[in-house]
Structure to design on (153 residues):
């Protein structure tokens, strides 16, 4: 399993606008593209013009592996639901897949590492909210995104 660097980051509250769906570990790989396509259809944007872009999950249920999934951005739109991303402490990991199109395995590996390796010895506990932060760095030949995990002491 790869090792990642976790940086602690105090984030200000941020208002986002997007779409919600129920998801789970088995369907998330289909749910994200479906919601993202719907978001781009509603807003008339493309993947390279809706930046920064957020993919958020919260309220993960260990027993069922279900959670709430949100995709959106800071751009207001009356057809989208608002979300206030809470202010607080976050663990931040930069993720760059070995091959630019293999985001799923790279993100999954980073999340597993965060929860199983870093978090238990960190002195922090998870707040059950995490998100992908896509910017211009997500595009191009050497793409990279940042994962943010809400934490508290």
């Amino acid at each position: 399993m790869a090792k990642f660097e976790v940086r602690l980051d105090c984030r200000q509250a941020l208002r986002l606008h997007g779409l919600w769906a129920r998801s789970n570990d088995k369907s998330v790989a289909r749910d994200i593209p479906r919601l993202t396509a719907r978001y781009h259809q509603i807003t008339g944007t493309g993947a390279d013009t809706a930046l920064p872009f957020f993919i958020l999950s919260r309220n993960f249920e260990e027993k069922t592996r279900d959670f709430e999934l949100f995709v959106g951005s800071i751009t207001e739109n009356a057809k989208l639901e608002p979300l206030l991303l809470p202010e607080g402490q976050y663990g931040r990991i930069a993720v760059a897949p070995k091959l630019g199109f293999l985001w799923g395995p790279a993100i999954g590996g980073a999340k597993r590492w965060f929860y199983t390796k870093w978090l238990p010895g960190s002195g922090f506990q998870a707040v059950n909210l995490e998100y992908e932060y896509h910017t211009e760095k997500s595009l191009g030949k050497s793409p990279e995104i940042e994962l943010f995990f809400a934490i508290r002491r």
